[in-house]
Amino acid sequence: MKKIVSVVMAAVMVCMSTAGCSGQKPAETGSSQTAAGSESASPEGMAGAALGSVEHPEEQTYLWCSYESTDDFMLMVYEGFEDCGKMLGVKTAHVGSSQNDLTEYINTVERAISMEPDGIAVHVFNADAYVDVINKAMDGGIPVITTGPDSPASKRICNVGVENYEAGAFGAERLGEALNGTGKVLVLTRAGQNNSELRVQGFKETLAEKYPDIEVISEVSVTAEIADQASKTAAALTANPDVDAVFCSLGIQAVGASQGCDQVGRSDIVVFGFDRNPAQLELVKQGKVMGSIAQGCYNMGWWACLGLYIEHNNLLGDRNFPTFISAGVSYIDQSNVDKEIEESNARIAGAK
What we know:
Keywords: Signal
Mean pLDDT: 85
Helix content: 40-55%
CATH superfamily of the largest domain: Response regulator
Largest sheet: 6 strands, parallel
Strand order of the largest sheet: 2-1-3-4-5-11
Distance between the termini: 30 Å
Main location: other
CATH architecture of the largest domain: 3-Layer(aba) Sandwich
Pfam family, one: Peripla_BP_4
InterPro entries: Peripla_BP_I (IPR028082), SBP_2_dom (IPR025997)
Subcellular location: Cell envelope
Order of helices and strands: HHHEHEHEHEEHEHEHEHEHEHEEH
């Protein structure tokens, strides 16, 4: 166990002493990445010394707070968080809520704080709404790392997520190719959620640069409810009958968008999605959604747990912690969706 952790810690030290694990636009996190200080020993030596200084890791507890806690995306993030905890020999737990209510989501973090853990990772639903509760934990001596959506105005140590601007740009290139460089697009977004806003920004700016004959004709903010997404998509398509495609900036939106297309009899519309929820994967398999950008969910949880462990045990010493760690993305289409569905079904079955 110690040998494995030493190798991992060495890799982390190398990563954190360079560029914070991934190049990132300042707009992504609300601040530039911090640069680590100079080293007087090799990363391997520092990692070994740091590991040896952690006594009784089994007495430490790290929590991950999320909304939509039974969703496959969330299960995958916690799987990574839990696996890292097992590797480190610490306790982990998932504090979540299946209710679709922002106040309840904030309360999950409040409950986590009351448990007095050694660190908390938070999957943020609304950047501004989480500032106070994250700051409460940080001010109380509990380190906080955000996973996925960020709350850059808070005192959180780091965000483990995807490079959202670049992910949106990738979506623009895929959709641009599918439309042969011309057409009109409806964009679904969610006001107040910074990852959605950055993806839309990357999508629009890349279209303008590389596919100037593709026009974003309307942007519609939708909730997390499929019914809301479907009804607003249908209304937008009715108002703009010349739309050729729908770009969805968040998970599950492609399901609502597809239903909205069905409601107005527009099976010809190209739908592009984000993430890998089971219903969306089935639509990719059926050809109703052309493809989906999947976030590195497992990586989010794994790096968040390791980051909290590093911070709580002061393993970086006087060196700076990065403000962003990239979890990476992959692309799902009909060529690989069957494998994704199989893995998703296994996770859901294991959680029951």
